[in-house]
């Protein structure tokens, strides 16, 4: 239970007793087992039920965005207020004077129930909100209903206020199951503790009254809701029974003509307009792409779509979706999907039950729109000879029947920029509010629209099975050819990756057929071959000879013009080309073979416009143009990179084609361009994440050397010998890791390499082994991976380590690391003279593997640190073997057995070792099974051990009793410097215990208390000891329910505390008021260097106070304000303050609702601040940040960061399934020093 609830119980207890004593009432209550049973059930439902429902609500509407979500639902909640479903107190809690201060912690259980049913997109169970669901239904909605149902069941005993033991056990079991499913397994222990806890009679009476009050409030709410629902039904009946005006009769003839248009126009699939014979019957060739519904908040995969018409299916975020956004990269099949939906509607095909019953479907191409929606419908779909009266009546019919209309807007990213408002009005229900809408776009083109759509999908192209299906259908009359192509794809990893894209699959089929079974090896070669195919067909049509060499060279002049126009259009972020740009070209020019005419689809365009059939063709011809100019010496590649600094990410495909074409024609130019790229990468050699330039260099090697092994070797050697990086952390699975590892064979600067990628390719360890056999500079290697590594691969790694003389720190994780791997590495350790740190964590090592490693420890004299954390197979047998080894080992300084299967027996053995061992200085025993008796033994050893300096003891839930034992020992301990007691169920009273330690302990330097429940009171108590302590430098109170009062206590402390340098307060609720208190203290504090205030509901006012403090503070170097609500105004305040600040080095403001204006302020700050190195702005909408006119952002590396929830020391936080989500951020803006 949380600390705030405990404080309220204590306050209530004192208040009731004082009131009764004053009134002359005897302070005594009669109580029996049966009445206590009833009171415990009341308490379970009222307290735990409220907390669980609040957690459920917070998971749907995160606290950081709650004020925004309530603003979105204001009209609906206002209706509930007017009908008195919500009382004034509840309304005030929903919309306090300071909107950003709203917190679900102030919502009572009745309000939470109303909100869950009305604004959380939850669908009622099949049995409704008021009937017990079947036992098989364990959905969130069903368990919410169960909480109320069990409340009513328990309340039926209210007259006697007693429940016998048998019924009590049954009720408790059923209620616990529902609450644990809703809130998670963490509640199971707390609920069991409540069941066994004694209750004061005062509390029994209190909880009986609370349950009665909840029942009464809920009954009143239900009556009001029933009244509202009845009124809505009557309104709907009235609207249904009202006949349509005569002037909106169903336009049967027009609907029929629309159907015929779709059957004719969309019935043939023509991926390439330049190849007339390359078209298919849509039904025959259509292959269903992979479509995944994504969670809108974090864009994580939520559900695989199995039917292309199931996109309107209800889900947790929306019970009745109206607006659907389908995102996907270029060529993933979005347009073909839209064609298929329109074609199937015209054909009367059966749809998914969730698909709306529609009478009208409008498929509109966004890039052809030149006016509003009505003009687009007229322009693209209606008959050219339709009269104005018929058109007007048709539009009236659409207005009157919106719920039976489906509007498909294909290609938002290709629409003119001034159309954003038109699309926003549609998805925000300002225009056609009942119309069903499907939108498609590349992700970068729908950033501002996606948050308003009911459902978000990701089109991920073809699965391997579906791409094979497409190829089989393509070659259905040439079965042998199809099988040959499929066999070639299976043997070529790169081609296997390309055919995920449906467009590439189609192109591959075309080229393969044309080349009679010859497969291109690279993307550049593929496009060169496609271009040759197109030019060959052009010559055939024009009856021109095409046997005079390479046709790309024959038509060089025309293609150069096309490439120049393509590049200029790309820089304008356009795909269309006006006819006037083709000076001197006739319609018989081959360049028109690569373009499609756009004039036919729009009646209002008075001139002809052209468009590449796909953006990748535009990029290819732009690359062809640049490669030609570089060869001629007309373009300098180094200057090109500098001049296009702000567009490099967008132009990356063009530059890759450029290098690929040069590599195809001339090794000299390819190597020269690579050298320039490496030179730019070395400008950021102090960064430890891959820059754009490093990634681009590796992609260049991959692109232009697949068909030239000699060039490949030269390019890899050039990269390895010239790269000057010292440390690198790789977290992106798309990073060319194997190429980079190969380059490290000849590199002489990189010392630390961390590869934090969950699924590496098979035999990756072999690449690492080959590199480590010859590399002479790497001292640290970390590999995070969940793919199984074979015994053979592990043996090869071990063999290479035998000859390596520099590696000191090796940490490897993954399911592949079991007992066999541990035995192999144990064999290496017997002979190793260099390895000092070994980490084999989060794997499948058991007692057998641990015992093998223990045997090595008896004789090894170089290993200083051993980490076996996250291996649940290691039990008492393995741990005892390690302890026996430590009796003779004198060199191991650090041992980590956290998250293993050890229990009391093992810990007592470790305690015994600590009584005599004089070498072990760091011990980690987190998240293990441990009893109170063993905690006592562990605490006692801290009294006498004089070597242990670091103890990680988090997640063991020792509670107040354990805290008392540990703190008593710490009062006399004189060696421990670092202590982590996070997640140990510390309550407010533990603040006093810790405070007493800090008053007398003079050696503790770092104390971590993350995710306990100290609250405001516990923080106040802790601060008393901190004020007089002179040794503590690091304090972490993240996730401790510290509010503004707690923040004020901390502020008073740092005013006088002279040693604290790092203060972590992330994930609390200090708000603007708490931020203001801390800011005042920062003005006088001279020691604090690192302050973390992320996830604290700090808005503009709090940020302004922090900014004022930064103007005078001269010690702070790192400030973290991630995930607050500072906005552009707060960002501007910080920028103004930082013009005067001369110490801050790193500023974190990610996920703060900052837009271009705020980002621009940080960019311009470079002119005024010489100390700020990096500003982190991820997860902010700065999509149009690059528009600075003539201003150039000097030394701003373009970095594509894929972030994992992993800290730099590779400490992992896993879910119950031992897996984690990959959070891919957008390009990170980083501002390095001048």
UniProtKB/TrEMBL annotation:
<keyword id="KW-0732">Signal</keyword>
<dbReference type="Pfam" id="PF13516">
    <property type="entry name" value="LRR_6"/>
</dbReference>
<dbReference type="InterPro" id="IPR027417">
    <property type="entry name" value="P-loop_NTPase"/>
</dbReference>
<protein>
    <submittedName>
        <fullName>Protein NLRC3</fullName>
    </submittedName>
</protein>
<dbReference type="Pfam" id="PF05729">
    <property type="entry name" value="NACHT"/>
</dbReference>
<feature type="domain" description="NACHT">
    <location>
        <begin position="322"/>
        <end position="442"/>
    </location>
</feature>
<keyword id="KW-0067">ATP-binding</keyword>
<dbReference type="Pfam" id="PF18738">
    <property type="entry name" value="HEPN_DZIP3"/>
</dbReference>
<dbReference type="InterPro" id="IPR032675">
    <property type="entry name" value="LRR_dom_sf"/>
</dbReference>
<dbReference type="InterPro" id="IPR041249">
    <property type="entry name" value="HEPN_DZIP3"/>
</dbReference>
<keyword id="KW-0547">Nucleotide-binding</keyword>
<feature type="signal peptide">
    <location>
        <begin position="1"/>
        <end position="21"/>
    </location>
</feature>
<dbReference type="InterPro" id="IPR007111">
    <property type="entry name" value="NACHT_NTPase"/>
</dbReference>
<dbReference type="InterPro" id="IPR001611">
    <property type="entry name" value="Leu-rich_rpt"/>
</dbReference>
<dbReference type="GO" id="GO:0005524">
    <property type="term" value="F:ATP binding"/>
</dbReference>
């Amino acid at each position: 239970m949380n600390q705030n609830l405990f404080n309220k119980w204590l306050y209530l207890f004192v208040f009731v007793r004082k009131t009764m004593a004053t009134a002359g009432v005897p302070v005594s209550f009669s109580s029996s087992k049966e009445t206590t049973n009833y009171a415990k059930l009341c308490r379970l439902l009222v307290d735990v039920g409220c907390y669980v429902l609040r957690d459920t609500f917070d998971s749907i509407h995160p606290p950081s965005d709650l004020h925004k979500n309530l603003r979105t639902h204001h009209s609906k909640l206002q209706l509930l207020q007017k009908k008195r479903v919500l009382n004034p107190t509840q309304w005030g809690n929903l919309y306090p004077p300071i909107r950003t201060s709203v917190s679900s912690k102030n919502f009572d259980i009745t309000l939470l129930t109303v909100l869950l049913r009305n604004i959380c997109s939850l669908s009622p169970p099949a049995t409704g909100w008021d009937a017990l669901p079947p036992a098989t239904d364990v959905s969130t909605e069903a368990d919410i209903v169960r909480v109320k149902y069990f409340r009513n069941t328990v309340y039926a005993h209210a007259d006697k206020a007693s429940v016998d033991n048998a019924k009590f056990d049954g009720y408790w079991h059923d209620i616990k199951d529902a609450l644990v499913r809703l809130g998670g397994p963490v509640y199971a222990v707390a609920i069991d503790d409540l069941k066994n806890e004694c209750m004061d009679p005062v509390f029994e009476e209190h909880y009986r009254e609370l349950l009665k009050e909840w029942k009464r409030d809920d009954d009143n709410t239900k009556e009001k809701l029933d009244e509202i629902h009845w009124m809505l039904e009557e309104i709907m009946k009235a609207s249904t029974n009202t006949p349509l005006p005569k002037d909106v009769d169903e336009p049967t003839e027009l609907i029929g003509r629309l159907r015929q248009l779709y059957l004719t126009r969309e019935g043939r699939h023509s991926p390439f307009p330049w190849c007339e014979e390359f078209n298919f019957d849509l039904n025959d060739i259509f292959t269903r792409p992979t479509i995944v519904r994504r969670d809108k908040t974090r864009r994580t995969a939520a559900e695989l779509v199995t039917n292309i018409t199931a996109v309107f299916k209800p889900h947790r975020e929306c019970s009745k979706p109206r607006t659907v956004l389908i995102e996907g990269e270029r060529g993933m099949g979005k347009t073909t999907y839209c064609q298929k939906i329109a074609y199937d509607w015209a054909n009367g095909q059966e749809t998914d039950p969730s698909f709306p019953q529609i009478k009208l479907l409008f498929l509109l191409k966004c890039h052809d729109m030149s006016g509003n929606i009505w003009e687009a419908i007229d322009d693209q779909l209606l008959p050219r000879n339709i009269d104005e009266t018929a058109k007007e009546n048709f539009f009236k019919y659409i207005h009157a029947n919106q719920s039976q209309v489906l509007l498909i807007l294909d290609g938002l990213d290709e629409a003119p920029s001034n159309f954003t408002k038109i699309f926003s009005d549609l998805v925000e229900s300002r225009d056609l509010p009942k119309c069903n809408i499907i939108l498609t776009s590349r992700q970068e083109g729908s950033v501002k629209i996606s948050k308003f759509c009911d459902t978000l999908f990701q089109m991920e192209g073809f699965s391997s099975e579906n791409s094979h299906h497409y190829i089989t259908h393509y070659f259905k009359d040439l079965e042998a050819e199809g099988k040959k192509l499929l066999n070639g794809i299976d043997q070529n990893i790169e081609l296997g990756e390309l055919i995920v894209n449906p467009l590439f699959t189609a192109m591959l089929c075309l080229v393969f057929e044309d080349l009679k079974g010859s497969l291109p090896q690279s993307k550049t070669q593929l496009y060169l071959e496609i271009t040759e195919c197109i030019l060959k067909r052009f010559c055939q049509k024009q009856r021109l000879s095409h046997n005079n060499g390479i046709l790309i060279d024959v038509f060089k002049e025309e293609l150069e013009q096309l490439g120049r126009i393509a590049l200029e259009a790309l820089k304008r972020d356009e795909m269309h080309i006006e006819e006037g740009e083709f000076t001197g070209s006739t319609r018989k020019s081959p360049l028109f073979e690569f373009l499609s005419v756009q004039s036919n689809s729009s009646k209002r365009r008075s001139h002809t416009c052209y468009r590449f059939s796909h953006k990748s063709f535009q990029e290819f011809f732009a690359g062809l143009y640049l490669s030609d100019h570089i060869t001629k010496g007309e373009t300098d590649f180094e200057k090109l990179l500098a001049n296009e600094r702000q567009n490099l990410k967008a132009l990356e495909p063009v530059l890759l084609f450029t290098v690929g074409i040069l590599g195809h024609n001339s090794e000299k130019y390819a190597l020269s361009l690579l050298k320039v790229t490496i030179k730019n990468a070395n400008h950021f050699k102090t960064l430890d994440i891959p820059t754009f330039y490093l990634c681009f260099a590796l992609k260049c090697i991959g692109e232009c050397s697949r068909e030239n092994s000699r060039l490949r070797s030269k390019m890899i050697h050039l990269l390895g010998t010239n790269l000057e990086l010292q440390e690198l952390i790789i977290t992106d699975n798309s990073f060319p890791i194997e190429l980079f590892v190969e380059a490290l064979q000849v590199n002489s600067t990189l010392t630390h390499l961390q590869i934090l990628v969950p699924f590496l390719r098979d035999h990756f360890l072999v690449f690492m082994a080959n590199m480590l056999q010859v590399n002479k500079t790497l001292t640290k290697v970390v590999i995070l991976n969940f793919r199984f590594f074979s015994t053979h691969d592990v043996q090869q790694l071990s063999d290479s380590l035998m000859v390596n003389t520099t590696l000191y720190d090796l940490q490897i994780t993954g399911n592949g690391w079991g007992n066999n791997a541990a035995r192999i590495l144990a064999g290496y350790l017997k002979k190793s003279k260099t390895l000092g740190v070994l980490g084999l964590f989060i794997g499948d090592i058991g007692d057998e593997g641990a015992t093998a490693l223990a045997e090595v420890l008896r004789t090894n004299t170089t290993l200083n640190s051993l980490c076996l954390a996250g291996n649940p197979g290691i039990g008492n047998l393995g741990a005892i073997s390690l302890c026996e080894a430590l009796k003779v080992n004198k060199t191991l300084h650090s041992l980590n057995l956290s998250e293993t299967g050890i229990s009391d027996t093992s810990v007592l053995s470790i305690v015994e070792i600590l009584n005599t061992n004089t070498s072990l200085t760091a011990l980690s025993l987190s998240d293990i099974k441990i009893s109170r008796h063993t905690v006592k033994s562990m605490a006692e050893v801290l009294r006498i051990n004089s070597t242990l300096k670091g103890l990680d003891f988090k997640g063991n839930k020792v509670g107040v009793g354990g805290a008392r034992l540990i703190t008593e020992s710490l009062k006399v301990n004189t060696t421990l410097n670092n202590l982590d007691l996070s997640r140990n169920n510390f309550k407010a009273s533990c603040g006093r215990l810790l405070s007493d330690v800090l008053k007398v302990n003079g050696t503790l330097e770092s104390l971590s208390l993350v995710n306990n429940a100290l609250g405001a009171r516990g923080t106040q108590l802790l601060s008393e000891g901190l004020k007089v302590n002179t040794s503590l430098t690091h304090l972490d109170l993240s996730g401790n329910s510290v509010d503004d009062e707690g923040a004020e206590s901390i502020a008073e402390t740092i005013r006088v505390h002279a040693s604290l340098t790092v203060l972590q307060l992330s994930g609390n609720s200090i708000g603007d008021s708490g931020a203001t208190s801390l800011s005042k203290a920062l003005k006088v504090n001279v020691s604090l260097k690192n302050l973390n205030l992320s996830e604290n509901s700090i808005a503009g006012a709090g940020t302004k106070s922090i900014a004022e403090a930064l103007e005078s503070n001269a010690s702070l170097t790192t400030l973290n304000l991630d995930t607050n609500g500072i906005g552009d105004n707060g960002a501007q305040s910080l920028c103004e303050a930082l013009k005067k600040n001369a110490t801050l080095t790193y500023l974190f403001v990610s996920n703060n609702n900052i837009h271009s204006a705020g980002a621009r302020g940080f960019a311009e700050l470079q002119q005024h601040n010489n100390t700020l190195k990096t500003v982190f702005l991820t997860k902010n909408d700065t999509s149009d940040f690059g528009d600075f006119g003539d201003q150039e952002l000097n030394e701003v590396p373009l970095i594509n960061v894929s972030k994992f929830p992993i800290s730099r020391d590779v400490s992992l936080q896993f879910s119950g399934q031992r897996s984690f989500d990959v959070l891919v951020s957008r390009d990170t803006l980083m501002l390095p020093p001048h």
